[in-house]
Structures are given as C-alpha cells and as structure tokens.
C-alpha cells in the first residue's frame, strides 16, 4: 500500500517568527496595531492614526469622557464601535461595556460584528484569554455564558458587551464603559425638539444612571443641531475631551490634526472638489455632516434677523399661550411692541401641565413681576375647552410644593376641614385669530419688524434656530417645516390677533 504523506506546514524563518511575535505584542497594547493585525486591509490615514492614539489614551484610563465627530465614510465606527470594544475586552475581559445607537437594529449589528472579530483566529493569537460561548445562548442557565444579538459575555471572566437602541433599557446593568454611536438617525430627527429631548431624557435617566465613579464614556456622532446630545453634554459638563475632524480644515492646527486650512480630510475618497460642491449645493448639510458645525442657515431660517437682548423694556405686554401635555409643552410667551420693534420673552415651557398648573404659573408670574392680573392672553383657538376652563374662577387643592413654587399665591389660599385650597380668578384669555393663511401672514408681519428675544429664553431661541423653510438643492421653497414652534406660535397668535391689520374687530 502507498502511504499518503501529510502536507507539512510551511517553514517559518526565525526572522518571520520574530516579526509575528512582535506584531502580536504590539497589537495587545496599541490600537492601530490591533486593527491592522485583525483587519489587514484597513487603510490607515493620518486622522485614523491620531484617532487610534486617542483611543489608546482612553483604554489606559487617561481620558474619561471622549467625543469623536467626523464626516461619514471615514471609518470612525469601524474603529470606535467595532474594533475598539473587542480591543478593550482583550485587554481586560472583565469589562462591562454598553453600546447604544439610534435603533436596536443598528446596535445589534455592532454586537454581531464585535462577536465575529473576537471569534477570529487572529484575535485569539493576540488575546487567547478572551473567548465567547461556542453556541448561541439566549437565557441564563447555571454554568452558561450568554451570547446573543443583545448581549455576549466573556467566558470565565464576567465581562460583557450589551447593545441597545436609544430609549432601550439598561436596567440592572452596571457599566464600566458606555459607548454611544449616533443617537440620532438623521437631520429630521435632530431637528425635532421632541426627539432630541427624548434622547436627552434617556441619556440622563437611563444611560448615566448605570455609570459609576470610574466609568468612562465615548460618544461618536454626526452633529446635526446645536442642541443635540453632544451640544447638551458640552453645555452641562466641562470635562469632555473632543476630537473633531472637519471634512475641510478651517481652524488652526491641533495636536491631532496638523492639516493646513483648506485641506480635505480624506481626499482619496472625498476630494476637496466634491466637498466644495456639496457645500455649494447644500450648506446646511455640509456644515453639519462634514464640518460637525451645526448652525442655522440664514437661507433656510424663517426668522433670520431676530436678535437677543438682556432684558425686556418697560412696555405694556400681551401674552401668547400654546397648549400641550404629554409630548408637547404648554407655553406662555410675553410679547411687547414699540413702533417697528417687537420684544419677546419665554415665561414657561413645560410638559405635563394641567389647566390648574398653567393658571398657577401664569398668575404667580404676573404677581412676581407686577403685571396686571387681567393682562390679555391670546391662546390657541383650537383648544376652546381649555380656554374656557382658564377663563373661569378655579378652586383647586394646594399641592405639596405649591407654596415653594408659587410664593406669590399664598394670599389666595383658604383652609377647610379637607385641607388647603386656592381660589384663583379666571385669566383674561381669548382664542387666537387663525383664518386660512394665518401662519404666512404672521411670519410676514414678524419679518417686517425688528424682533428681539430675551437672552434667558432658551427654548424660544432654540425654536427660532430650527424653524426653517424646506430647502431643495440649497434653495428655499418658502414652505415651512411647521414644527418646533411651541413658543413661536404664541407670538404669531398675538401678532395676528392684536397687532396686525388683519386682526378681528374685538375690544378687550
């Protein structure tokens, strides 16, 4: 019989063996070396190299809170949200990592990609102690380690990666490292105050509550709006380190970006000519998507010429009121007019207010500022029942925090054997004049005047900055995105009902 000879493995020279061992050793402590060892076809450009250096500093604990912003198709998610979690678990398989994105579907895709990286032979050569369960395990059982599209655990170490969509639960999940990759899907979501606020609520009520003193955070996103998640955390906190790579360099050199002004970030894939063409055709998208500098475009803004002032003048005010509850806020806006100048101030802007709560806030403000309790209020005429209720005298219970929140209403409290109650006069509120075309009429009237917004009116100013015309190829269609206007609408109610030539013939 002829004996079949097994093929011998290829001979490896001492030099090749030494080079292999060095590559593995470097990949254990250097993010870029890890990426190239596990994904040899990854193209490393100078900005990728610098980002890897920042991620290494993060991995060593030298950076606790890191924000990364750069244009799309530049490999940021491949580095930060796929390779980096695998790298972190290799260095420390006990880590508890949460990865969040705008939807559960996207987050689960990251989960599966990370699992594939850890399962690869090249990964095992670098980090042999970090392994996953060989089979899919959906629910916990004694001696088993979870592995599914939502969570996977490192065998024998207790570490894990859990992925959720923004809005999803992280209950009972302590997090050492929290990674958020694009919490907003697109410009439409980013321009919705309701969506932005829901992201912020989830971040503060869910995500942050799972962190501890030594936890680290990494946020990767495209900036669409000044008040998106990055805008809010930077306004609130001063301890974030930011890495922002502009599509076209505009500012001075930084420690991580040594380009000259006017240079493209990745010209081989996104040439300067292409970027300039995008800038020319759609400057709003260009500023946000490629420069990470979200700001309102004067061409798109409905109210481009509004200005902020430090305080309201001493003039007779009229008030506009809009009604919401669960999803939208109820609002009260103070409006004053002097010749061709209009002055506005946000009084309150709050969800979940009952009619009694609206009345308490309104009367307390009138008393605290010396306004006439019968000051005219123009409310949304689409809510006649609410207007009628606010016009009527109110008997309502004094709630636990009312004396603290409404100190000027104490004179209206009376006591019975059932407790303390308010007796509140009705408001001088009327329904707004809203004939066909009233939106455009109000916009035209306001744009014929100098309009000033009191500087502390944050929600009103934010709405002004996101109240835009629909743009087609960089040109305004004169059709308004009629949303994000809970403080803007009350101004129009006052304008159309009290100030303009088209106001109704009513005497108040």
TrEMBL record:
Residues 322-496 form the Phage terminase large subunit C-terminal domain. Gene3D superfamilies: 3.30.420.280. It comes from the Bacteria. Pfam families: Terminase_3C (PF17288), Terminase_6N (PF03237). InterPro entries: Terminase_L_C, Viral_DNA_packaging_terminase. This is Terminase large subunit. It comes from Rufibacter roseus. The lineage of its organism: Bacteria, Pseudomonadati, Bacteroidota, Cytophagia, Cytophagales.
């Amino acid at each position: 019989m002829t004996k079949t000879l097994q093929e011998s493995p290829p001979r490896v020279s001492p030099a090749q063996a030494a080079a292999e061992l060095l590559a593995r050793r470097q990949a254990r402590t250097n993010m870029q070396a890890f990426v190239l060892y596990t994904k040899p076809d990854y193209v490393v450009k100078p900005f990728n190299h610098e980002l890897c250096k920042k991620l290494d500093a993060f991995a060593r604990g030298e950076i606790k809170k890191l924000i990364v912003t750069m244009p799309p198709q530049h490999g940021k998610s491949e580095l930060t949200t796929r390779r980096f979690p695998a790298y972190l678990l290799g260095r420390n398989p006990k880590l508890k990592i949460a990865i969040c994105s705008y939807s559960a579907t996207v987050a689960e895709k990251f989960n599966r990609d990370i699992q594939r990286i850890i399962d690869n032979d090249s990964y095992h050569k670098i980090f042999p102690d970090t392994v996953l369960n060989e089979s899919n395990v959906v629910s916990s059982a004694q001696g088993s380690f979870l592995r599914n599209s939502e969570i996977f655990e490192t065998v024998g170490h207790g570490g894990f990666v859990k992925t959720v969509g923004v809005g999803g639960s992280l209950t009972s999940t302590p997090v050492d490292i929290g990674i958020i990759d694009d919490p907003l899907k697109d410009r439409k979501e980013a321009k919705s105050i309701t969506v932005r606020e829901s992201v912020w609520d989830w971040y503060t009520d869910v995500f942050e509550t799972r962190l501890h003193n030594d936890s680290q955070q990494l946020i990767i996103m495209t900036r669409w709006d000044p008040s998106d998640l990055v805008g809010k955390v930077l306004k609130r906190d001063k301890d974030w380190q930011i890495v922002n790579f502009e599509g076209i360099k505009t500012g001075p050199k930084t420690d991580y970006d040594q380009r000259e002004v006017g240079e493209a970030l990745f010209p081989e894939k996104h040439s300067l000519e292409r970027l300039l063409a995008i800038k020319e055709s759609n400057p709003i998208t260009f500023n946000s998507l490629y420069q990470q500098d979200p700001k309102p475009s004067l061409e798109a803004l409905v109210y481009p010429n509004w200005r902020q002032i430090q305080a309201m003048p001493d003039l007779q005010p009229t008030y506009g009121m809009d009604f919401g509850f669960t999803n939208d806020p109820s609002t009260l806006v103070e409006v004053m007019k002097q010749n061709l100048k209009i002055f506005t101030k946000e009084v309150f802007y709050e969800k979940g207010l009952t009619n009694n709560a609206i009345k308490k806030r309104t009367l307390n403000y009138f008393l605290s500022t010396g306004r006439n309790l019968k000051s005219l209020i123009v409310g949304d005429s689409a809510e006649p029942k609410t207007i009628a209720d606010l016009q009527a005298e109110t008997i309502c219970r004094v709630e636990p925090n009312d004396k603290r929140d409404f100190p000027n209403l104490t004179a209206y409290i009376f006591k019975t054997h059932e407790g303390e109650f308010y007796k509140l006069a009705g408001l001088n509120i009327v329904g707004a004049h809203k004939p066909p075309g009233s939106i455009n009429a109000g916009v035209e009237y306001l744009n014929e005047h100098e309009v000033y917004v009191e500087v502390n009116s944050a929600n009103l100013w934010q709405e002004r900055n996101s109240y835009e015309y629909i743009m087609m190829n960089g040109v305004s269609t004169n059709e308004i995105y009629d949303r994000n206007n809970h403080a803007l609408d009350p101004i129009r109610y006052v304008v159309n009902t009290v100030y303009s030539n088209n106001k109704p013939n009513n005497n108040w």
